[in-house]
Fold this sequence. Notes:
By secondary structure, the chain is an all-alpha fold. It has one domain (32-137): Cytochrome c-like domain (Cytochrome Bc1 Complex, Chain D, domain 2). The protein has 6 helices and no strands. The chain has helices at 2-26, 39-52, 54-57, 72-79, 84-94, 104-117. Mean pLDDT is 82; it is low at 4-30.
Amino acid sequence: xxxxxxxxxxxxxxxxxxxxxxxxxxxxxxxxxxxxxxxxxxxxxxxxxxxxxxxxxxxxxxxxxxxxxxxxxxxxxxxxxxxxxxxxxxxxxxxxxxxxxxxxxxxxxxxxxxxxxxxxxxxxxxxxxxxxxxxxxxxxx
Length: 141
């Protein structure tokens, strides 16, 4: 019986190390993480972005002198090392500037659209408020 317990403990420890390594690798720059949003969320987010965000951040997400870009190198420089959760929390607390707060699902859809606009791929699972993935692990721009 003790051989079985020892073998089980060794196998469980190895699985824990492999799992921790996979989580660590997914968060490193230059390595891709699994998709975290659906195509439907990004499509919905594009419409919500046009309605709630484009007047300041511009329709092409390029921003302006005082308004930060939400696409390309400026976006990745500002947000690449941060997580989806950090950006969602910021958006939820501060955007739209001077306007009423939006529903959580609307923020999630807008975030999905921003990620897609920066080269992130859609997948089968919807983006959730609890997702914590480094942005540069998702984006390619």
